[in-house]
Amino acid sequence: MTIIESVRGRRVWDSRGNPTVEVDVTLASGVYGRAMAPAGASRGTREAIDLRDGGSALRGMNVRRALANVNGPIAAALQGRDVQDQQSVDGAMLAMDGSPLKDKLGGNAMVATSLAVLHAAAADAGIPLWRHVADVAGTTPSLPLPEIQIFGGGAHAGRRVDIQDFMIMVPGAGSFDEVMEITSEVYFAAGAIMKEKGRLAGVADEGGWWPMFDSNEEALETLVAAIEKAGEKPGERVVISLDIAASEFGKEGRYRLALEDREMQSGAMIDLLGNWLDSYPIVSIEDPLAEDDIEGTIEFTRRYGDRVQIIGDDYLVTNAALVRAGQEQCACNAVLIKVNQAGTVSESLETFRVARASGWGAIVSARSGETEDVSISHLATGLGGGQLKVGSFTRSERMVKWNECLRIQDSLGVHSFVGGEPLADTWWAAAGAGRMPAT
Ligand code: 2PG
Ligand code: MG
Fold it and tell me: Minimum-distance ligand to the CA of 167?
């Protein structure tokens, strides 16, 4: 048993220039763990709430109240606890908060503390964080397959296009290192195409190119063209993944595509996405329908769940009970794991466990507001769930996570990439993306 000696929170700043919470958890030996809270922009209504000060200063985003909770009640409750007992640490915070959405202590205060404890426990044991995660979760580590954003959109790009993330995956690569190389070629090919067309206008929140397109389909066409320009055949080594983030433009079964000034019912939205699945080498689609559209999500899964990975993000908010309900209703076949949606590491691990127990995919993910924190690279590797979503291929709050995976690759070995097994029995084998016709 190694006792937590102190817990200290400080204000730091995230990739959007907003204040956020950093926590140091220190042990008697002087060993410490440190973590920072990320922040979402397209948030599910049922995810843990970040405690912000409100008012006019710092656009209401200050975190003084959350920090006071870290340095006051959270520190008092955690001092003297065993750093190796993540469950008891998280349980103490949960009991103290007691609110369904964690708005009493603040999801930001809780997630930074919970992750800092995880880091401190790994340092205490003298092992890398990914190894500690695997020990806590009882999983087999493997380097994840990245989902990497080429164009941003939706809430991350002033709603310039409706769809939020146009991403690629490179399951045909032989190593994590090769994924990076191929992604770099595709990313800059996309930039070159936009420049040729006079449409280069900077980058969106997560570093993907700013989406100067006339339609969502033009973004997809350009992505396919970029893959080709990079010397790859779309649908072979490189495939497409989308985060529709439909809750941002859909409510009560009605969807409004602002770019095309078009409004449609849930059924038409399903048909539209189905057409995209038929026309482009898409293997994964996140939040295809809004979080309140349960019937639509069930219908979408019934029609396409055997050929494409359907991820619940806003729809499931890293919540084990919602994943269980989704499994019973056959809505989605995968869940995004964002520790700050759940609020604590223990709850996130439970959601992961529930997902995988029924053969669902589980994709560890960053938020659109990020920091130099690399916890998720270790989490994705330690859990061996097979996939990691971080954002684009520029900006250090993104690259720091890909680069951390490359460092982990050095100790884990190139052959640990993806792990095969978790993917083989879920979406990859079913999607058969390598056999999909390119457009
Ligand atoms: C998402 C994330 C990351 P945000 O929707 O998956 O792209 O966005 O952090 O804004 O919720
Ligand atoms: Mg999402």
Answer: 1
